[in-house]
Design brief:
alpha/beta; 33% helix; 3-stranded parallel sheet; 21% strand
Length: 283
């Protein structure tokens, strides 16, 4: 009976320490560099404060997915492999022997691959991902229009490969929605005023601005969009012990969700931006 009670309440006293499993994961190089800067030499399993330089959704995801595995008594270490773009990373996980992506993906982007991958419970739930209508900082006519914005008079740019962004924008009565494959092309089109805005997550800056290709972008004040869909981690079914890895990941994510850690991290990193809490959703 004593052994049973110890097993129930103090399992770490019964079982030996579980050695960390090394998982080959794919990530964009820029995201990896931001993650390393965010860590600043810290152990990702010890991080409780999700503020600071390079604190954003992509970096805290890499931290929390490792914490999730650890909480489920299946600690892992990541061996990172760089890949350009979401589609390439997804194909590497499905076809080339990698365990998983280091970051989440939209459910709609992988729903057709369920035979090849495990899809975790949601990390970002439906409508939690809010985006701003970002335009070049010199467009004073747009920036101050707020909830009086005449959306039917505006042109936007996005990529149909970004399914959630694209479908959300298609619901709006825009004058035009232009499909281009690359971010830098979108930036240039807005900068040259060929279109009025692009979608981007709200930034962790005092004025919510960001700079890309030497152009400063700001959100149209007072309005935002809630992106439909959820984001999940994916694990290759062809990777050894993948079902156990997926089960452990989901157990750990449940603990992080129930403890409030995921929501707190998303807020502290600026993903759930308190500056726009009262802004009007256009959808």
């Amino acid at each position: 009976m004593r052994s049973l009670l110890l097993l129930l309440f103090f399992p770490f006293l019964i079982f030996p320490t579980v050695l960390a499993t090394e998982l080959p994961v794919v990530v964009e190089e820029k995201v990896y560099n931001d993650y390393i800067e965010f860590l600043d030499g810290r152990d990702p399993l010890e991080i409780r404060d999700f503020t600071g330089p390079k604190a954003r959704r992509s970096t805290i995801e890499i931290v929390l997915v490792q914490q999730a595995f650890s909480l489920a008594n299946m600690p892992v270490t990541f061996k990172f492999e760089f890949a350009p773009g979401a589609e390439r990373m997804r194909r590497m996980v499905i076809l080339h022997g990698y365990a998983m992506q280091a970051n989440t993906v939209w459910r709609t982007a992988v729903s057709e691959n369920s035979d090849d991958i495990w899809i975790s419970q949601p990390f970002i739930r439906d409508t939690e991902f809010e985006a701003g209508l970002y335009t070049i900082a010199t467009r004073e006519d747009l920036l101050k229009s707020g909830d009086q914005i005449q959306i039917e008079m505006l042109k936007a740019v996005s990529s149909s490969h970004w399914v959630s962004d694209w479908n959300t924008l298609k619901e709006l009565p825009l004058k035009d929605l232009i499909d281009v494959p690359e971010w830098r092309t979108m930036v240039n089109m807005v900068a040259y005023k060929r279109v009025d805005f692009l979608l981007a997550p709200f930034q962790v800056t005092d004025d919510l601005s960001f700079t890309s290709r030497d152009y400063q972008f700001k959100p149209i004040e007072g309005v935002k969009l809630g992106l439909r869909g959820s984001r999940h981690f994916i694990i290759s079914k062809s990777y050894p012990n993948s079902e156990a890895l997926n089960s452990a990941l989901n157990r750990g994510l449940s603990v992080l969700r129930q403890s409030g850690t995921i929501e707190r991290a998303l807020k502290e990193s600026g993903f759930m931006n308190s500056q726009v809490a009262g802004w009007t959703k256009l959808n």
